[in-house]
Design a protein that fits this description.
The protein has 4 helices and 28 strands. It is mainly beta and 382 residues long. The chain starts with a helix and ends with a helix.
Length: 382
């Protein structure tokens, strides 16, 4: 592990200690980056078995993002970005001078671009790299607002990219917004921002959720107004369910997963012995399971959303597991919840993208077309 990466992890660990004193069959996988082992573990979500361990050559892998069609996985290394072709598990590597301790990775809904935050040593980075997926060419966006950028997320319509600025020693207090059409950057500031780290966008693009040390900030995208949801614990990463009804947040003091009901901002907590510095979290497309990567636990916890029951996956490949990002294929439903054309638009988009609803259901991890249709109806009901 490089000294730069060690510095970043020790910084995170210090804050934890202080507070504690399209290949359809492959698209159902969860890709877990193991920073300590320099590997990526592939979990089949249908069975929770680790089916593959990828070793080529990852350098302290951290951030991860699966493309909307499930064909590729992008992994942020200490000095490069690796690309996994899910059909073959072949890995290629993209290098560029702009890569400076990359942390977060996010793919646009159409799969044409990948945004990579360059956090820099001790979160001193000040740029975002943009990979054109067709050519792997890299361009760089710089802006005074970038201050140790970490988490990154793209809106479902592909128009904006939200970047959390953690800042040196987690002193950051802003979120940058990149307009994808022009790369113009605007900045959102709010008293609730306190070392913002993780970012997730609601499926209808109406809200953006940002983790801080003791709260989750909720940004209304129409106005940039911010609402604070206090949790009183150390927070790291988060994921929104495909229907937008819940947000799952990895927390500390004690290690747990907080669940925010988005309609009311009411919070419940899930605790389990398997949680040990939980960092990465992702939801399956059918919302039935939530996967949590435990950095010090060297395991992956799986929450059954219907009951909040937790099972633990263990495997020798898990070694300082991070999985910071969307490590399970996102559903990427089309349409806007609450609008009359949402259902038809979503069905048409999925059928076109996957070559029919049967293929879409398989690619997105649903047991049947009817299960997929139920999820679409829940999403469009808004």
């Amino acid at each position: 592990m490089t000294n730069l990466r060690i510095c970043r992890l020790l910084t995170i660990a210090a804050f934890v200690s202080g507070f504690l004193a399209s290949t359809p069959t492959l698209a159902q996988n969860a890709y877990i980056t193991n920073e300590g082992g320099g590997t990526v573990s592939v979990i089949a979500t249908a069975t929770n078995a680790v089916t593959t361990i990828l070793t080529h050559p990852f350098h302290d892998p951290f951030g991860v993002a699966v493309t909307p069609d499930g064909s590729k996985v992008y992994v942020a290394n200490v000095d490069s970005v690796s690309v996994i072709a899910t059909a073959t598990n072949a890995v290629t590597e993209i290098t560029d001078p702009s890569f400076n301790l990359p942390s977060g990775v996010a793919v646009t809904p159409d799969g044409s671009k990948v945004y990579v935050t360059n956090s820099g040593p001790n979160f001193s980075g000040n740029s975002v790299s943009v990979i054109a997926t067709a050519t792997n060419a890299v361009t760089t966006i710089t802006d005074p607002s970038f201050n140790g950028p970490s988490g990154v997320a793209v809106t479902p319509d592909g128009s904006k990219v939200y970047v959390a600025n953690s800042g040196p020693n987690f002193s950051g207090n802003s979120v940058s917004v990149i307009a994808t059409a022009t790369n113009a950057v605007t900045t959102i500031t709010d008293p609730s921002f306190n070392g913002p780290f993780g970012v997730a966008v609601a499926p209808d693009s109406s809200k953006v959720y940002v983790t801080n040390f003791t709260s989750v900030s909720v940004i209304a995208t129409a106005t940039n107004a911010v609402t604070d949801v206090p949790l009183g614990v150390l927070l790291q990463t988060l994921a929104v369910t495909p229907d937008g009804s819940k947000v799952y947040v990895t927390t500390g003091e004690p290690f747990s997963v907080a669940v925010i009901a988005t309609a009311t901002n009411a919070v419940t907590k899930i605790t389990d012995p398997s949680f040990n510095v939980p960092l990465g979290v992702a939801v399956t497309p059918d919302s039935s399971k939530v996967y949590v990567a435990n950095f010090f636990g060297n395991n992956v916890s799986v929450i059954a959303t219907a009951t909040n029951a937790v099972t633990k996956i263990t495997d020798p490949s898990f070694n300082n597991s991070v999985a910071f990002g969307v490590f399970i294929i996102p559903p990427n439903f089309a349409g806007t919840p609450g609008f009359s054309n949402c259902l038809g638009k979503t069905v048409s988009e999925l059928a076109q993208r996957f070559g029919g609803l049967n293929a879409a259901a398989a690619a997105l991890g649903f047991s049947s077309v009817s299960a997929l249709q139920n999820a679409i109806e829940a999403f469009c009901g808004g």
